[in-house]
Each structure stands twice: as C-alpha cells, then as structure tokens.
Amino acid sequence: VAGNVHPECDFMVELKKKEAECLEAPQEHGNATSPGCKRTWDKLLCWPEADAGEILALPCPNILFHFMKEPAGMIKRNCTKKGWSDPFPPYHVACPVEDEIPLEEQSYFSTIKIIYTVGYSVSITSLIIAVTVLIAFRRLHCPRNYIHVQLFFTFILKAIAIFIKDAVLFQEEGIDHCSLSTTECKISVVFCHYFMMTNFMWLLVETLYLNCLLLSSLSHGRRYFWWLVLFGWG
Q1: For 103-233, CATH number?
Q2: Among 3, 39, 118, 172, which one has the highest count of C-beta atoms within 10 angstroms of its own C-beta?
Q3: CA angle at residue 130 from 129 to 135, to 5 degrees?
Q4: What are the residue boundaries of the structural domains of the chain, listed by start?
Q5: pLDDT tens, 51-91?
Q6: Which of 80-84, 119-123, 150-154 has the least mean pLDDT?
Q7: Which CATH architecture has domain 7-21+35-94?
Q8: Bridge-based pairing state of the strands 46-47 and 74-80
Q9: Taking each helix axis from N to C terminus, what angle separates 183-215 and 221-233, rounded to the nearest 10 degrees?
Q10: What is the mean pLDDT of residues 158-168?
Q11: C-alpha 44: how far from its chain's center?
C-alpha cells in the first residue's frame, strides 16, 4: 500500500498485525475434540492453547504502554470445559488508558471548526457577489477580469469541497477513520486537493498574466489568456 500510515492509526495497524500472527500460528493440539481451549484472539491479546482448568496470566499489550495512566497489570483467563472465561480483571481495570480527549482540546477544536466554517461561508457569499458583478457588467469584460473570475471560482470551489469533505468524513462521531476507505471518502478528498491545487495555480496565472502585459503589447493579452486558462485548470 502506497503512502505512510498516520501516527494515530499505528495502534490499529499494530493490532491487525498481532491478530494475523496469532491466527496464523499452528495449533499445538492435534485433536480438535480434546478438552481444553484453543488459541484465540480477543482483539488485544493472543491467548495460547490451554488445558481445561488451567489459568493463564498475560501482561497488558505492549502497544498500550504509551497510553497507560498507571503501571501495567496482569490479565487472567480461566480455561473451562465450556471455553475461555472472561478476562479478569477487565482490561480497563488492569490496563487503564487515557482514552478521552480533554475538554480544553474539545472546546479548542470546536471553536476552530466554527471559525473556519463562518469564514468560508462569508468568503463564498462575497465571492459569488463579486463574480456576479464582473459577469453582469459588460464594461468589466476583459482578460484580466476573466482571470479574476476564474480565481474567485477556485476559492468558491475549494470552500465547497472542504464542506463536502467534512460532511463525508465526520458524519458520525464513532466512525473509524483508520479503516475508512469508501468511494465517497476518496472522491471528496481528491476533489478537495484538486481545488486547492487549482487555487494556487490561478494565483500563479494572475502573476504570469501581469508579467505578460508588462513584457508585451496589450493587444496580445487575449491570446495569452486562453493558454493561461488551460494552464490554470489543467
């Protein structure tokens, strides 16, 4: 798979790796009907095979050490004739971790989202008015203003793409962003990056066009304009 894993997803990737190692390991007991418990993965630890009546104790998973609030404890499971018992003490008691975002951080992120949502909304409204004015009045029709309109469109489309991306990625609070790979997610991210790129490209087009006007006669401006349009959106 191309690309690097986000640091916040390292935990999930490591769990998947441990699960694969656990389930792919060969079983020691050849007879599946013999009394005892088979090797099992409980989403955090790999419990080896055990005989009926045997009690196994395993330390907290290594991948939890960076998140733990207290020293690591031990988790035990009893192998009964009916199978493995529930872990005791429970994981959240034996391996307490910092799994809650502080209220200060929640408030900070909420404030940031409100600020950029209001900012983008005001920008979209202002830019739509500006585009309407530039298109409605014929006396304003010229290559330079056409480039302004294209640039304004990139700002509008970039803001809309960000709103769509947020709606797709954060439609549910409990969504797993590390394993999220839906078509809607990919399309929204691609369009968001594309419109951000075109926004910078049209800023460059503005500079190139003004430079062309300074280096050549004004009559050649329209000829340069169509090449710059292709460059800006291409």
Answers
A1: 1.20.1070.10
A2: 39
A3: 100
A4: 7-21+35-94, 103-233
A5: 888 999 998 888 777 666 666 788 999 998 888 999 998 88
A6: 80-84
A7: Irregular (4.10)
A8: unpaired
A9: 160
A10: 89
A11: 24
pTM of this structure: 0.58
Question: pLDDT class for 198, splitting at 50, 70, 90?
Answer: very high
Residue-level pLDDT at 220: 55
User: What sign results for the dihedral spanned by CA atoms 152, 158, 163, 168?
Assistant: positive
Tokens 């530039």 belong to residue: 134
Q: Which DSSP category does 28 fall into?
A: S
Cα–Cα distance measured from residue 133 to residue 198, given in angstroms and rounded to the nearest whole number: 23
The number of beta carbons lying within 10 Å of the beta carbon of residue 94 is 19
Instruction: Work out the angle at residue 53's Cα, subtended by the Cα atoms of residues 48 and 59, and round it to the nearest 5 degrees.
Output: 40
Query: Would you say how long the chain is, in residues?
Result: 234
